[in-house]
Amino acid sequence: MQQVNIHEAKTNLSKLIEKAVHGESFVIAKSGKPMVTVTAYTPPPDPATRVGFLKGKLEVPADFDSMGKAEIQAMFEGAE
Fold this sequence. Notes:
Blueprint: E1 2-5, H1 6-11, H2 13-21, E2 26-30, E3 33-38, H3 69-77
Parallel strand pairs: 1-2
Antiparallel strand pairs: 2-3
């Protein structure tokens, strides 16, 4: 991994950023002491893309809306 001092990093920032974007991380040092590592940014996955991720893998029964209707009604109205 390439190490550059702060002055060199300021002078060549555009070139260094291009290298980082293409996978070549580098370290910025101050007086020869490593301070930070610069790597390409990887955005987190978009949570909106998770909606529907099980589409086609599950089957909803045709009577889904009325499943357990008698049992639920008995709980609210009491056993008949």
